[in-house]
Amino acid sequence: MSWSIDETVEKIKKEFKIVGRTNELRAILLAKKSDRPILIEGPVGVGKTTLAKAVAKFFRQDFIRVDGDERFDEYKLVGYFEPQLVLKYGWNWKSFVPGPLVQAMMNGGILFINEINRLSEGAQNVLIPALDEKIIEIPKLGTIEAKDGFWVIATLNPTEYIGVTPLGEALKDRFMWIKLEYQTFDEEIEIVKIHSNADDEIVKFAVIVARATRRHPDVKRGSSVRGAIDLAKLINLSINDEINIGKLIHLSTIALGTKIELIDGTSKTVEDVVREIIENISSQFDFFREKEVDKKEAIKVENKFDVVPDIIPSTRNSTESLERSSSDSNPLENLDNEHKNDDSDKFENSASTRTLLLFYPQSDKVLTLFRGLLGYYGTRLISEIREGKDIRGTLSQLWAPLDFESIYMLGQEAIKYRNFIALTALAEINPFAIAKVIEEHLSDIVDYDSIHLVHLFYLTKGYLSRIKKKLFGRIAHKIIVKKALKVLGSQSRRHGFLKKKTPYRPSLDFDLESTLELALDKILTDRVNKRDIICLEKYEKKTAGVIILDISGSMYGEKNVLASIISAMSIYAMSPRDEISIILFADEPMMIKGIKENKPIDKIINEIFEIRPIGFTNISLALRKALKELRKASFKARKWAILITDGEYNRGDNPIKWARKFDRLHVIQLGGSTRGTEVCRLLAYTRGRYVKVRNMDELFLAVRKILRYPDR
After folding, report:
1. Any idea of the CA torsion for 311, 314, 318, 322, to the nearest 10 degrees?
2. Cα(446)–Cα(597) distance, rounded to whole angstroms?
3. pLDDT digits over 544-602, tens only?
4. How far is 34 from 134, CA to CA, in rounded Å?
5. Which of 21, 93, 419, 483 is the most exposed place for a label (fewest CB within 10 A)?
């Protein structure tokens, strides 16, 4: 191609009124020029489809759109043989109905796949040779080679979205990748102006309201710029009427109600969230007078939900403070009153620090301070934090516990160097101090997906302000889901399909032999109709099972984190028609999800995080509870259970007799002694698979492998 990328970007932006997105358009055009398919990832409403359509229209190419759906299988994507025509003409082009992939290849057009990770696994796999070699094999027909110009643009929802099938590594490897985020404040202002024709003040109000929904602690998914456009249009149409807060709340609810997804478990409604936002910002606007709103003031209002007051006070000795406040109902409030005039956030100004810095005037104040306080171990602590290492070993060798200020300063250093395993180790010692660090720096860790952040949330959530707890919880949930989907990989859904004979429907597999047996006379006399045709329909085999997780005797919260990830894996691995129960146990079994219960993953994670680990283990009670749940299954099938434990039971009777009552009982042993190994082997003996794992990664892989064929 002889066109210039930079010139083409400007032409596309001008012709299709695209605001911003210069870098993203450059990347798309680079992919086109290098003849590589492009994958655009981003949340709903950031303009993925708009960019794809603009590029296709600019180059005057056929634009064939496919909307991702798990029912959109490989036959609908590639094409299928029409049975009546097969009986008349045989297996050839006259009887073949081409699908969108074949149409785009034969016409040299652009295939746009919207939400590719909602396609079925079979449809995703059939794309690989088309993307890689520009060919596709059609059984009974031959090889299709793509004409020049054939190109694929696909969009991808973030992996934490419900209902998606994660792309396999083989398919993902064929694409170039672009990440789209929400646009800047100024760009969204310009977009809303173009599409709403509203006054500046109304536009700014609508944009600020829409953007505020994305950061509200009770909102899981906020409004895109589409919500701001709709809101600006509604206000503009109503500007001649009386406008008050009640009217604004009403209009905002109409415009944004379908574009906001609330977090699971919140008691608030969409209208409550909208009312809270409007009441916070409405005083800055006046639709009766043509009042100009200063841009800086607008941005200040927009960021209102980012400002959260500190509730974790700093103190020189957290142990003494806790002892003094133990008799009060709210120790945090007591601490805050006691130290409300203490300027201890500025550690450089404390007397002890000033004294140390006189003796150690080096420029690295943190290293100097801890070298003075702890000598060799102080230097080692700071070095390990900065190198991203686990500091538990060094902390265990200190001759005295660290006070609040020391933990706080080390936490600041761990945040600075993104050492979340060190931050978690510090939270195990003093969650108060690390909660204060999280309060101040939560915005710095939003884009990280370290599993240690989940453990950190578990340790500090009781000491965070309401808003920061919800925001941090949302980060933790996203990490759990991402980890679960990453482990499951391309094989996210359980394997196990059956085929049944069914009457004719377009795109179903054609059963020629059965049709010939049934209607040979009609075929020979050319009197066959659709009712005479037999097809094969593939459907998932339903199954029912229980995940049984041992959380006893764990490092505080560690097994809760593992349980949350495994629960997410089990939910995503099963078909929506499967029935699955989740049970956690220590000395008593705890029902997290009943076998017929339709509970969202966020609520499951929240319940797991509310459980406090107990040291005793009663495997028998857990197995009995699982058997009761399996009896509640609504269909007949081979029932299964996966037990994850160390086998070291110290409560209840011998669990072996209960294990023999399961159709299938798979046992994964994590840790444990020789006695635990013997128990786990006997539990799984003849009833399922036994796997011993040494660490978290091996555990997840073992769960994934069993979930593929849990009833075998």
Report:
1. -40
2. 32
3. 899 999 998 766 678 889 899 998 888 888 877 788 999 999 889 999 999 988 888 88
4. 14
5. 93
